[in-house]
Amino acid sequence: MTLHTHRVPAHQLLEQSIGHLGDTLFLDYRHAIITARLQPGQLIRPDRMAEHNQITVTYATKILDALAVHHYLQTAGEAYRVTNWTDEDIADLIAATGEMQSALQLRFTERQTPDDIAKLYQTLAFRFSNPISPQQLEAFHIRFWSYFHQMLTSYKIETHRTINLATSPPYLRRRMLNALSHSELAELHANMKTLTKALETGNKDTIITLCHNQIRIFADNTIADNARYRAVSNNREANYTLTTDAISTPADRPIALRGYREPLGWDQYLAFQFA
Question: Fewer beta carbons under 10 A from the terminal one: N or C of the chain?
């Protein structure tokens, strides 16, 4: 008798916990990239990272690979560079996100169950304060990811995570939400509630309109915000102390926190304790 073993895709292995220290360093480096303490285009060498953090090169590489899967880094031979998107790169990525989301949402109306809809509503069951706190912004990052991840998992296909990572990687999603003002985040939350009702009732015209309008807002804001990152981009080797002056957050937006790693499924989402 032949025994068949299930092969876990490489990206899923890289998204799993890297241990307490590994997850800590993942979040430290992710936040340094988002705040430009690690600046776009900078070189990160696994051996230098390992030396600074007193870990093995193998462990450092594992952390950097996990960041690359989420598009915070790009491989550069045996080293890595902080992702340095042009405005055209962002426009193309967001356009691909819009196309995928529009098709996904229309198909979802044909196969959604009451349990699927209930989970979508559950991710939106909160109120933003005015102004929105940094803690609420981070919670919304997790809720937003889980909302669309749950829609994909309803398709019951093993490649759903791969699709999500390729068309709307976590780095892009965080950059999109971080580029929104307090009022724009509140409007997005309200629009997602309207979208959920349209998904529940199969109102395809409303789904298409909401999706196209939101993608336009994401594209306009994220491309405009990219100027802050492009202004500090360089090809130098990174400062592994992560203490280089960061770009400042505009006054009309909540500050981005170090945050959490994205949940791999609904059970992990439920484990979050949001204030």
Answer: N
**pLDDT digits 0-9 by tens, 201-226:** 999 999 999 999 999 999 999 999 99
Distance CA 187, CA 254 (A): 15
Q: Which token pair is 34?
A: 């988002």
CA-based R_g, the chain, Å: 19
| Cβ neighbours of 206 (radius 10 Å) | 15
Dihedral sign (CA 206, 207, 210, 216): negative
- Per residue in 157-198, pLDDT (tens digit) is 555 567 667 778 999 999 999 999 999 999 999 999 999 999
Residue keyed to tokens 């395809």: 204
The architecture that CATH gives domain 11-84 is Orthogonal Bundle (1.10)
Q: Is the pTM of this model over 0.90?
A: yes
Token pair recorded at residue 64:
């950097």
Task: For residues 46 and 57, give the distance between their C-alpha atoms in angstroms, rounded to a whole number.
Answer: 6
Residue linked to tokens 């669309």: 148
Token pair belonging to 58:
């193998």
Report d(CA 166, CA 177) in Å as an integer: 18
Domain range annotation of the chain: 11-84, 87-228+262-270
The beta strands (E) that lie in the chain are given as 43-44, 73-76, 79-82
**φ and ψ at 236, to 5 degrees?**
-75, 165
SS3 content of the chain, % helix, strand, coil (to 5): 60, 5, 35
